[in-house]
Design a protein that fits this description.
Blueprint (H helix, E strand, L loop, with lengths): L2 E5 L2 E4 L4 E8 L5 E9 L6 E7 L5 E3 L7 E6 L4 E6 L8 E9 L5 E4 L3 E6 L1
Parallel strand pairs: 2-11
Antiparallel strand pairs: 1-3, 3-8, 4-5, 4-9, 5-6, 7-8, 9-10, 9-11
Length: 119
């Protein structure tokens, strides 16, 4: 059973921190990247960052670079998105997704978790 389950969203004041988790199961051996995306009301979904499964290299959108950090726990098959210095414009539903080996797109998605940053 392929599954991605996010957790850790919530309400936080501007300048605060949250850590999102994404527990993966069913396919981690064929994973090339795990990514985080977000979608704010009335806006298109956007890329936040990703981690390459083979070497833990990370990549970030310009808007979050230096504030957000992606890491993983191999033993738990869990990927984390540590978000520091949160801003009201970071308010969105955050999704984790998986991109398989040899694929150019993300094929499995979690259900999303809401992050709300108050000013």
């Amino acid at each position: 059973q392929v599954q991605l389950v996010e957790s850790g969203g919530g309400l936080v004041q501007a300048g605060g921190s949250l850590r999102l988790s994404c527990a993966a199961s069913g396919f981690t051996s064929s994973t090339a990247f795990m990514g985080w995306f977000r979608q704010a009301p009335g806006k298109e979904r956007e890329f936040v960052g990703s981690i390459r499964w083979s070497d833990d290299n990370t990549y970030y959108a310009y808007s979050v670079k230096g504030r957000f950090t992606i890491a993983r726990d191999n033993a738990k098959d869990t990927v984390y998105l540590q978000m520091n210095g949160l801003k009201p414009e970071d308010t969105a539903v955050y999704y984790c997704a998986r991109r398989g080996v040899g694929s150019n797109s993300y094929d499995y998605w979690g259900q999303g978790t809401q992050v709300t940053v108050s000013s």
